[in-house]
Amino acid sequence: MQDKLNLMIPGPTPVPENVLSSMSKHPIGHRSGDFQKIVQKTTEQLKWLHQTTADVLTITGSGTAAMEAGIINTLSKGDQVICGDNGKFGERWVKVARAYGLDVKVVKADWGTPLDPNQFKRILEEDTNEKIKAVILTHSETSTGVINDLKSINNEVKNHSKAITIADCVTSLGACNIPMDEWGIDVIASGSQKGYMIPPGLSFVAMSKRAWEANNQSNLPKFYLDLKQYLKTVNQNSNPFTPAINLYFALEASLTMMQKEGLNNIFARHARHQKATQEGIKAMGLNLFTKENFGSPAITAVKPENIDAESIRKAIKNDFDILLAGGQDHLKGKIFRIGHLGFVNNRDIISVISALESTLDKMGKLNVPTGQGIAKTISVLNNE
């Protein structure tokens, strides 16, 4: 059946009907008073979501643009930085940092394993000359389904008088608790097509006072991503360049929905769906790729034994119109990933676990009684 595809990937995520409807309005002038009202409202809503009084700036661009902006607006060529690398996106920040001439120390962990805060602690404590200027890491590493311990790593950074934390929270913001001010995080980057529940095209950078102090020393090249321009215009309820106006309509609608649900309810919903997915997978005899204590609230990675993961994805898409994410790089064909981020409800979780169980049964690869997986998922959903 056409037009029935259900996105169960880490992004883009499903978009609510009222958010889609808001985008169908005629564009308005981006220098108009009406648009300024939207910028003013969404700026306050973004501060609410980030749990901060700091500046949250909106860029027309992807989450990568937000992360690159955070890096180039706080650092200078030759600065020493630590990059956490335990997946595809950690690898990306190492490449970005080196592209700008930064001196990169890499803290690595195997894909599917979280970064060790003690490794960051050791390197930071050994830096007696305080040459390290930043720690750059991914909070929710969706290539593997791992959540890194941002709070503990950031605590180690705060013990260093010079370094700041630059955090990729693209698939964790709006899914789990990240109190920017309480934890003292300096830079948080995120993207619209994830927990924000709107299409791709907007990204967001939250900057602390320490980050702005670092900005005063930064000499890396920047123009479109020069955050000083965004800061100047956001204080005038505007934007330095032509923004994606209709995505602002969507942003206002989605953040209003999120405020109505409440942060704690949003976090609880994602935790419930994560657990229901994990427990259903285990009950049907499949293995989680990541240890449960370090699973991301955005996505669950599954490593089937003696089955090509891509054949499972293909069958579920063909038979049920549900799109799952595959493995990346050396994990292609070895894992598949189930997204439970953003505009996802209990029905979506039941549907994807049922489809997976039915697919394995049809392939002759279900090694437990039919219905055992979905029964466990329903039990979790009914009791959480």
From TrEMBL:
It holds the Pfam family Aminotran_5. The modification N6-(pyridoxal phosphate)lysine is found at K194. Keywords: Aminotransferase, Pyridoxal phosphate, Transferase. Its cofactor is pyridoxal 5'-phosphate. One of its GO terms (molecular function) is L-serine-pyruvate transaminase activity. Residues 11-328 form the Aminotransferase class V domain. Substrate binds at R337. GO terms for biological process: glycine biosynthetic process, by transamination of glyoxylate. Coiled coil: none annotated. InterPro entries: Aminotrans_V_dom, Aminotrans_V_PyrdxlP_BS, PyrdxlP-dep_Trfase, PyrdxlP-dep_Trfase_major, PyrdxlP-dep_Trfase_small, SP_NH2Trfase/AEP_transaminase. Belongs to the class-V pyridoxal-phosphate-dependent aminotransferase family. This is Serine-pyruvate/aspartate aminotransferase related enzyme. It comes from Prochlorococcus marinus (strain NATL2A). The lineage of its organism: Bacteria, Bacillati, Cyanobacteriota, Cyanophyceae, Synechococcales.
